[in-house]
Amino acid sequence: MHSSSLLSLATAVPRNRIAQPDAKELGRRAFGGKAPLFERLSSVFDNAGIDNRHLVASPDWYEHGHGWAERNSLYLQAAEQLFEEAASAAIGKAGLVPADIDGVVSVSTTGIATPSLEARVGPRLGLRPDVHRVPLFGLGCAGGVSGLATAARLAAGKPSSRWLFVTVETCSISIRLDSDDPAAVVATALFGDGAAAAVIGNGQPGLAKIGGSAEKLWPDTQRIMGWDIEDPGLAVVFDRAIPPFIERELAPAVAGMLRELKLESGDIARFCCHPGGVKVIDAIETALELPQGELDIERDVLRDFGNMSAPTVLFVLDRLLERGIPERVLMTAFGPGFTCAGLILEAP
Hints:
By secondary structure, the chain is of the alpha+beta class. It has helices at about 20-30, 35-40, 45, 70-95, 115-125, 145-155, 180-190, 240-260, 280-285, 295-305, 310-325; strands spanning about 5-10, 15-20, 50-55, 105, 130-135, 160-170, 195-200, 210-215, 225-230, 235-240, 270-275, 330-335, 340-345.
């Protein structure tokens, strides 16, 4: 099997931008019928480490109830636009045209698209009619790492092939004003929308070499993180145990993944992590015995964009590439399952 390289990376966000204090006031109005619940949890807006987020709908959309059909219609419209924007930028940055792409891996979990997003966007983007398509659903926040790893494995299987990876998430559409679950308020304080795309090439120099990947799935943890499918729409599943679970379980999981990849902890110059929230970032630093503040880019991305689910770790990687990628990086992201996805990147 041939090696693959990251040829380009691009990100995209919707035009609607909201500052966190404004989001808090919007949440207070939107949860008006459940004021005691909101007020009890409203400090999460102040302590989330977020300054701004981008939303696919205008702020007034979130003050009203919406059914599943209306939410998914908005998802399709917004996701197609973000997919096209991110994919076009990534292809252009790689010095390619859409017809050069041999396959597409697309990751999205915040709506349903049948036909899938790359089938909807591919023709107007200019992808070939014979392009290979691999849509992935249900990966949640882990999808940025596991989707990139999937595209890299597929690219590595054929000399000179070029694969496009795109992940789009519209988490804000899942805001549920009818819910009595505290997780609904927490999600309102954390979630933003965005997309990221990358081009992976086989046997070609690029921004970074892509090494092996690994995953850890913990049994009996399905209620830690995910979505419930309900009549009004998706309902977020967030367990308060996530940060302590990470503190307890991440180090042995990473050690196991590194053994599988025939590496040791000393071989990793930096981690590139999905910043699910400030408590999650703190838990990762504690678990891996990193100096406090080591994951500075992760905190910066969370501050500027909030938690966009799967694309967020690619935003972190984009800034890490701008800074200068270290000799060897381990990307990690947690997702529903409960699972941790890992991927090795190396300096070119």
